[in-house]
DNA sequence: CTGAAAGCGCTAACAG
DNA sequence: CTGTTAGCGCTTTCAG
């Protein structure tokens, strides 16, 4: 391992000068600089970043905590984070909690031990108190999720108005018996998506039949099963708003099996715009979150905090889009 | 920032003792140990891992270099890597090359600068010479891919025999005009999958019609487009072996649009068993790679190298499975 | 513009 | 079983 002192010796300068050439080249006389650069080259010197980090007390690394890697929505965000991070010379550590709160706690130690300069969380299942304390002492941003009342920098969409938009679309197409297959209500986003459904219905003077609201698990199978339940009703719904695309696909599968044609006999809207929603047959009408942008922005907010120019801890809400494809039939008429 | 010396002072011992309590508790008298632990607790001391890393010259971090994060096959492997890594107290850094060789080179510096203890590569597009040199000086394993002739530790499946198995299945179902939509031939895996197709055909005395082999791009659209070409032939094929699932889905979409029924009028086999292939209608018959296991094994091989007990640099080839679903019709009869 | 020197916080011989 | 001590390799004052 060739080290800085070797370079210094070869170039007949002090290590301080070598260090300067590396970090502030303009402060070194050209002649000396060239000498040093030549020595670096000759020796194929690579600085030991660990030592630098210890000295400077920063790692240029951030931690991304995901509940589940295999989710393409999360992945889109990670892609954005990674892009913005490497643009700023930051590396990203990946932490998978597998939906276990305990793993969240374990990952937090990386921050406390100064192994990363900051952290981006995809969901905050841990105790509020601990989270708050964490945010006060370290750069943290929450993405995809947000916590009411707490002023934690976060980036998300407005799940309520997005869902409202989705349901409103169904209503505009003339549907009145609209069912909702929600996500598990323990997630804030599931509650919000339900609220949006509710608001759109009430706003159009449609009453909400509690039979028409079924709690799913965000999985294909749960969408399929809940749809079967709905189809068994005396007056089944003519349209479904599913809280994510996987469940929407399950819904469509169940409908197809019962001989129903989507969209002619049943209209379906999903949520997330996962990559397969355009490939699925029929292609899914769904709400698209600006995932890449959310990732970039999250990283930028984090950098702001790390660099200390955090104008103020802020919460961003980005626009979502209703992507109209085939699963609801004719375009909006209103 | 409370440091080790603070703990030492409070507990009335030397820093050496504190260090021992942390790393080799059994070598410290219980009484002293408890005193130290209490001090650690009282001060909420968190060791500065950076300093430890510098001193021990190891990071407990490995780097995973992926060509493209948004690929669920890669993701399955990453999941396995991550699981095995965290079981061994290793962290994983994520590097996305976006399919740019230059980014590969950039990421390699992390290894050279001792920022990670080892590296798992998903594809090796860089120059052979550089790769070889890298492997000689650092722990590296190649996964999903392998390089003929070079003895680089790697974990992969046998693409040739897997494809042979897929095509043999179609032949067993009575098909003789079988087309292949390959991946870009610049990838070794594409070539191998083609070879498997060729071998199965020749083995069954079926001649290969070069018109029946079309090079795709591993994308849904390319599968769709190449299928349209095939359908325009005077004697179109009755079965398709696509080099990945996305293309297989494109194939099916094109077939459906032309009024063909899959599997009745056309049998299709894919490759990869991405999660969506079971949801797709018709559910895809495809080759499944043991991705999670590949990830685990890759990580284990890497750890072996890092820890120096690398019995020998070895290349592992895991078994793949033909998953029979709906897209080929009736079960194998042979 | 450059060099000397003092650490960053921890670990690991080596003594005792 | 515990303390002393000498660094890991780099950065950064402070002088010159």
TrEMBL record, chains A, B:
Signal peptide: none
Pfam families named in the record: LacI, Peripla_BP_3
Alphabetized Gene3D superfamilies for the sequence: 3.40.50.2300, lambda repressor-like DNA-binding domains
Positions of transmembrane segments: none
Keyword line: DNA-binding, Repressor, Transcription, Transcription regulation
Keyword Repressor recorded: yes
HTH lacI-type domain: residues covered: 2-56
Coiled coil: none
UniProt entry tagged with the keyword DNA-binding: yes
PROSITE patterns linked to this entry: HTH_LACI_1, HTH_LACI_2
PANTHER family linked to this entry: HTH-TYPE TRANSCRIPTIONAL REPRESSOR CYTR, LACI-RELATED TRANSCRIPTIONAL REPRESSOR
Protein name: LacI family repressor for deo operon, udp, cdd, tsx, nupC, and nupG
Annotated source species: Metabacillus niabensis
């Amino acid at each position: 391992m060739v080290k800085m002192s070797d370079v210094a010796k070869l170039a007949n300068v002090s290590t301080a000068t070598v260090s300067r050439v590396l970090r502030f080249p303009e402060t070194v006389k050209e002649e000396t600089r060239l000498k040093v650069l030549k020595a670096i080259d000759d020796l194929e010197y690579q600085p030991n970043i660990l030592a630098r980090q210890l000295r400077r007390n920063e790692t240029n690394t951030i931690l991304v905590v995901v509940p589940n890697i295999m989710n393409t929505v999360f992945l889109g965000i990670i892609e954005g984070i990674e892009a913005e991070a490497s643009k700023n010379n930051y590396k990203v550590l990946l932490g998978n909690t597998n939906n276990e709160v305990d793993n969240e706690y374990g990952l937090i130690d990386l921050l406390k031990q100064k192994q990363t300069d900051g952290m981006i969380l995809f969901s905050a299942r841990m105790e509020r108190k601990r989270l708050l304390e964490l945010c006060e002492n370290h750069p943290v941003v929450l993405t995809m999720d947000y916590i009411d009342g707490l002023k934690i920098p976060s980036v998300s969409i407005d799940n309520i108005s997005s869902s409202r938009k989705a349901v409103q679309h169904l209503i505009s197409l003339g549907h009145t018996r609209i069912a909702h297959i929600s996500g598990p209500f323990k997630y804030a986003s599931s509650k919000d998506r339900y609220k949006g459904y509710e608001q759109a219905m009430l706003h159009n003077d449609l009453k909400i039949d509690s039979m028409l609201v079924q709690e799913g698990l965000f999985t294909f199978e749960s969408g399929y099963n809940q749809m079967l339940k709905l189809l068994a009703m005396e007056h089944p719904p003519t349209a479904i708003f599913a809280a994510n695309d996987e469940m929407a696909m399950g819904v469509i599968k169940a409908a197809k099996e019962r001989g129903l044609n989507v969209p002619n006999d049943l209209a379906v809207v999903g949520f997330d715009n996962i990559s397969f929603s355009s490939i699925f047959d029929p292609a899914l009408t769904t709400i698209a979150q600006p995932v890449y942008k959310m990732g970039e922005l999250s990283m930028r907010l984090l950098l702001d905090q790390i660099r200390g120019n955090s104008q103020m801890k802020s919460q961003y809400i980005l626009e979502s889009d209703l992507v109209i494809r085939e699963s609801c039939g004719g375009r909006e008429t209103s």
